[in-house]
Amino acid sequence: MMIKAALFDVDGTLVDSVDLHAQAWVDAFKEIGHDIPFDEMRAQIGKGGDQLMPVFLSPEELEEKGKALEKRRGDIFREGYLPRVRAFPKAAELLRRVGKAGLRSALASSAEDEELAALKRIIGIDGGQLDAETSSSDAERSKPFPDIFEAALAQLPGVSPDETVVIGDTPYDAEAAGKAGIRTIGMLCGGFPEQALREAGCIAVYRGPAHLLAEYDASPLGAGSMPD
User: Fold this and answer.
1) How far apart are CA 27 and CA 38, in angstroms?
2) In this structure, how many other beta carbons lie within 10 angstroms of the beta carbon of residue 162?
């Protein structure tokens, strides 16, 4: 099946932010009396708050404190950690290469609108270089549910799931994409091991945007058709 579109995860795929998100969650949980080890929290990054918080909170705590905790995490991240986020090398160039090749492209992010706008500035892209983008308001459930990828694909009329590839850095990306009938290219730059990405369904794995760009012609994006 010929590839017509690429859906890009943002955090951990195009920008180096996974550790910073994990620390923001650790800080927020600590404020409500939960001292979560950093490594345990980092393993959950890639999920949205709706899927992450139940890992560490009882149903009662989630009901009582969940909304405030998620808001506080967002405030901590934007105020203390967002200024430290940097784009991975060649992230913007990879997006431009996809467009130059004639593929449609979308950012499939669960970030809030304000945060996504900041991340686009960090990457060095504007809306004119993309065919679509999503934010947290576009999906009821976060990864590993498929909602965010389905929402992005809905903004690309005439493109089917089997004509689309997701580029993401976590097993949750691959799981979510698989539930939407989309295959995934994995990126190691987010910190998950290659084995975890392949076990979750990734059809190819690259070190990061610069590696995928360098290998573009031989990759599932450049080959023009999806491997079986």
Assistant:
1) 10
2) 14
